[in-house]
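note to self: the first set is below, dont mix up w the second
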Amino acid sequence: MAEKSFKPIRVSDDATIDLICFPYAGSGASIFYTWANYLNPKINIYGFQAPGKEDRISEDLIEDLNILVQNAVQELKQLIQRPFVLFGHSMGSVLAFEITKKLETEQLAPKLVILSGRPPPKFGLRMSPISHLADKELIAELHKLEGTDSRILENAELMELLLPIIRTDFRISESYKSSANSKINSPLIAIGSKNDPWLNEVEFNEWKDYSKNTTKIQFFPGGHFYLREHLDILSEFLNSQILQKSS
């Protein structure tokens, strides 16, 4: 089945631009389902679903970032029929950034790239690695991150299925680093949140060095998962920025 990595969350022939969303570590396309209630109907919404997640849980996980990126690029080449924007949060920012670089080499550049909740590549992650921890310790750290519902974390049977997914994502995210020479040609917006313990504002502002085009740095209230806490504010901003790129 073509384009199976990109789940149509809301798609209409009347839309003027596509928004391709990449989720944070351990999650899948479903985290973007509620966005259909907030984003302008002129924006189509797709969520990235890597193998081994959600409705693809029977497939083997991919542990190599380069393979994930290359597979996504091949599917996007078949999917894209109109102007498009990439959005990624945390690990999703890594995917969006690397996919943009590959797409640009194939003359299929996004109108805009929005990278959220992730330091510039040369800094790597500011949080301590957790992918190597034993199950009990890893679950304790996931509780602290507040990115996964505590009811899920306390369900032993469910966590037996989810822990390999979470480990794989965090291993990819923890090992990723790139230099400031790694630039994209597309316009870039970097979004941080004021109370994110894993972002340093001075470092974050260096995202301006990663695009040869225009770059905007934006901060919102909230913690690392501000996009859940303040989706109303974020969606208003996304609507204004994305629709400007639809023509």
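second set (the one i keep forgetting abt)
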Amino acid sequence: MTQQAGGTPGGAVEESVAEVGRTLAVNLRAARTARAWRLDDLAAHSGVSRGMIHQIETRRTNPSVATLARLCTALDIPMSELVQLPEQLGTVVRRSEAAVTRHGTQGLSEAALLMSDGRHELWDHRLRPGDEIHDSGHPAGTRELIHVNEGTLTVEVGSATFTVAATDALHFRAADRPHTYRNVQAVTARYTVTVIYTGQPDHRYPLHPPRAPEGDNDT
């Protein structure tokens, strides 16, 4: 095994174990207090002693799988919920990190892909007056939830035209057909689009943020 400078495999394992312990302690206490349960209440429902629960919540012990199973059954939550690390619960994506494509006669309108996980996409659009964005259509069954923050957006599909003003929203059920977003007003339209794939994802758009490649194991 190749050892990296500045640390040892054993030290990394110990830190991982400690991090799981910290996470378990916080999540267990949060799940208990969300039900307004005292330590005694959880002990009575789970069959795990009050002292053991207190030790877990104060990171003084690492419980067995059987103990965790009893606690999770009493709290009616999956075991994975107790050991989920903070970064697994959410990801912040900065607008400056978005994948941006430009549109319009002068390239001043933009569509920024904030995030995509293969099943959903979140876009932030800024459409200048007189500009339009045409889409040939997503895979069958795709829907879009459109919310206009500023200005007015016109969405055209087939013979239908939808006019969506600021603070209004559109549940667009025909996103799998060719459609056009158009700004016929004198001010820039800013709107967000959540794309929901019920079948195949749209391979025109990559996952974002890109998933980190699996690290190579040195042996």
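remember for set 2: DSSP finds six helices and ten strands in the chain.
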